[in-house]
Amino acid sequence: MAQTQSKETSDYNSRSVAIQVTGVRRQDLMHRSNYTVRVPYTSMSKAIQNIHRIGGKITSISVDSYGASSSDKEAAEQGVTYPQLQNKNPRLRERAMREIAKNRTEETIPQLMAILSAADVVYRRAAVQTLGVIGLDAVPSLAEQLVNSENDTVRASCAKALAAIALKYKEETFPAIALEALEKALRDTYPVVQISAVGALSTVGSPALPILQDALAMENLALQVAAIGALGSIGDTRAVEPLSALANNPDADPYIKESAESALSRLDQVSKMSQRNLV
Predict the structure, then answer these.
(1) Residues 6+ apart with CB under 8 A from 136
(2) By three-state DSSP, how is residue 186 classified?
(3) Is residue 258 packed enough to be buried (19+ CB in 10 Å), middle (13-18) or exposed (0-12)?
């Protein structure tokens, strides 16, 4: 028996997406570095990945809804461009984040991922926080792009979004795929990604302790100091041994020794505070 296509599916497939891109010089566009990519709505995720792969930055995304009503088109455009995430009023941005997370569709996460390369810092940070509100459903996309994106800003934003998820969903088990991606990010060539990964691991807490402990042996002074600080903040007494070893190592860099001593003091305070909260 022949199957008929529903109006909802037909309208969905009839949409096309206009992606505004900057930062890539194209020979077919002479010397212009700003251009528009038009693809079917259903191919948007793949197009975004290709743009990131060649180093492009997406400045905006809009939808043309052929065959849909004007109200449907307006709703579609609202869902993709998320203008309120750029609002200067933080309360309006926060409201938009909650609404986007509450009413998300299968395209919401790809749309937010696209914003992670935006030049507008406020817009980009709002997307990071919205992914944090969405939570564990966003982890696979964030982990994949943290490891594979060729865009430094996207990778750093992915690490920050994973930190936001860890902070908001403390009672949930932090996914292994995210821990593995953050561990790989410690060896990233971009320092901001490295430090952002340490920050995320610090937010994860005890499950990240082995990774942070391994980071102490990396030949990167800034990364070592960041890992030391993270170990001092997570409140896990298992961190006492590696931190003490550094603090008492006569051959260690003086700054490393001093950082380890400070971390031990902070760890003691955090541990005592945690014990008081349990009483």
Answers:
(1) 165, 169, 172, 175
(2) coil
(3) middle
Per-residue pLDDT of the chain (279 residues; tens, 9 = 90+): 434 444 433 444 456 777 878 776 555 444 456 778 888 866 776 777 777 777 777 766 666 644 444 434 443 444 444 778 988 899 999 999 999 999 988 888 988 998 898 888 999 999 999 999 999 999 999 999 999 998 999 999 999 999 999 999 999 999 999 999 999 999 999 999 999 999 999 999 999 999 999 999 998 999 999 999 999 999 899 999 999 999 999 999 999 999 999 999 999 888 777 666 554
Cβ neighbors of 28 (< 8 A, separation 6 or more) are none
Q: What are the structural domain ranges in the chain?
A: 205-274
The answer to whether the CB of 52 falls within 8 A of the CB of 110 is: no
- Per-residue CA distances from 233 to 60, 173, 178, 202 (Å): 38, 19, 20, 7
Are the CB atoms for 98 and 143 separated by under 8 Å?
A: no
Phi–psi pair at 190, nearest 5 degrees: -100, 120
CATH topology for the 205-274 domain: Leucine-rich Repeat Variant (1.25.10)
- pTM reported for the whole predicted model: 0.74
